[in-house]
UniProtKB/TrEMBL annotation:
Keywords assigned: Disulfide bond, Endonuclease, Glycoprotein, Hydrolase, Membrane, Metal-binding, Nuclease, Signal, Transmembrane, Transmembrane helix
One GO term (biological process): DNA catabolic process
UniProt keyword Nuclease, yes or no: yes
Coiled coil: none
Protein's name according to its UniProt entry: Aspergillus nuclease S(1)
Record keyword Transmembrane present: yes
Family listed: Belongs to the nuclease type I family.
Domain of life of the source: Eukaryota
Gene Ontology molecular-function annotations: endonuclease activity; hydrolase activity, acting on ester bonds; metal ion binding; nucleic acid binding
Organism, as annotated: Rotaria magnacalcarata
Shown chain mapped onto the complete sequence: 22 to 288 of 340
Length: 267
C-alpha cells in the first residue's frame, strides 16, 4: 500500500485498542505524535528512499525484501521452505517482529519492531505482496488506468491507484472522510476474523490467481503486454481493496491488544 492504505489500517487498529494497549503504544511512539501510531505507518517504506534518508539509506536496504513474499509464477501456493528461506520474507518478518516485541528489552529495538510490524501487517493485506517472482508482484506488468496517459503498473495500481480513484470519485479526495467510511464498514461487519499467517497468504494467492491478473475481458495480464484498465476493473476490485483494509485494521488491532497483554512488565 501507499500512505493512505497504511494509515487507514493503522487508524482502524488503533480504534480497536483496549485495556493497557493504548498506553503501551503511546510509550513506543514519538511524543509529538501524541500516541498516534498511524504517523509511523509508512516509516518502513520511507527508510528505503534515499531522499528521506540521505545518510542512512544503505543501512536499511536489507529490510526491502521483508515487505513481500514471491512464489513461482502461477504456482498458486505458498511453501515457506521454498519461498521464505531463513524467514527473509514478509511472513517471517511478521513472525519475528511479533516475537521481538515480547522478548526485547531495549526500548529503541521495541519501537523499531513495532513500526515494522504495523507496516508489514498492512502490506500482507495487499494481495500482490504475495506475488509472482517473474513479474515482481505485478511491478513489471505495465499499462494504463482510467484513461490517464502516463503508464502505471499492476502493483502500483493495487498499492495506490484504486484507492486514489475511489477518493477522487466519492470522497472529494478527503482521506478523513474515507477513513470514516472504512471504519463504518468494519463496525457493520459481524464476522470475526481470526486468520493465521498461512491463511493470509492463501487469501492473497486466491485473489491473484483468480481475480487480479484478469483484465476487463478476462484476459490474463502479463509483463509482455501493456494493460488498459478502467471503470470495469475498478468496480470489480475496489470492494476487495476495502475489505482488505478492514481485515488488516481488525487483525492489527487484535494483535496489538494481545501483545500489550503478553509483554513482560517493565521495571
Ligand atoms: N519486489 C519484488 N517483488 C515484490 C512484491 N511482490 N511486492 C513488492 N515489491 C516487490
Ligand atoms: Zn506494494
Ligand atoms: Zn511496504
Amino acid at each position: 500500500w501507499g500512505l493512505v492504505g497504511h494509515s487507514i489500517i493503522v487508524r482502524l487498529a488503533q480504534s480497536q485498542l483496549i485495556d493497557s494497549a493504548p498506553e503501551w503504544i503511546r510509550s513506543l511512539t514519538p511524543w509529538h505524535w501524541n500516541g498516534n501510531l498511524s504517523a509511523m505507518a509508512s516509516w518502513a517504506d520511507s527508510i528505503l528512499y534515499e531522499d528521506n534518508n540521505p545518510t542512512g539509506y544503505a543501512n536499511w536496504q536489507w529490510s526491502r525484501m521483508l515487505h513481500y513474499v514471491n512464489i513461482p509464477d502461477w504456482s498458486c501456493d505458498y511453501q515457506p521452505e521454498r519461498d521464505c528461506i531463513n524467514d527473509q520474507c514478509i511472513l517471517g518478518a511478521i513472525k519475528n517482529y511479533t516475537k521481538r516485541l515480547v522478548t526485547e528489552h531495549d526500548h529503541i529495538q521495541q519501537e523499531e519492531a513495532l513500526y515494522f510490524l504495523i507496516h508489514f501487517l498492512g502490506d500482507i493485506h495487499q494481495p500482490l505482496h504475495v506475488g509472482f517472482r517473474g513479474d515482481r508482484g505485478g511491478n513489471s506488468v505495465l499499462g494504463t488506468f482510467m484513461n490517464v496517459t502516463s503508464r502505471t503498473n499492476l502493483h502500483a495500481l493495487w498499492d495506490v491507484g484504486l484507492i486514489a480513484a475511489r477518493l477522487e470519485k466519492d470522497f472529494q479526495k478527503n482521506i478523513s472522510l474515507y477513513y470514516d467510511y472504512i471504519y463504518q464498514l468494519m463496525m457493520d461487519e459481524t464476522s470475526q476474523i481470526d486468520d493465521n499467517l498461512e491463511q493470509l497468504s492463501e487469501q492473497n494467492i486466491n485473489l491473484i490467481c483468480s481475480q487480479i491478473y484478469f483484465d476487463e475481458n478476462n484476459v490474463t495480464m502479463n509483463a509482455s503486454v501493456n494493460f488498459i484498465l478502467g471503470e470495469i476493473y475498478y468496480q470489480r476490485n475496489i470492494p476487495i481493496v476495502e475489505q482488505r483494509l478492514v481485515d488488516g485494521g481488525r487483525l492489527l488491532g487484535t494483535l496489538l491488544n494481545r501483545l500489550a497483554k503478553t509483554r513482560p512488565q517493565q521495571p
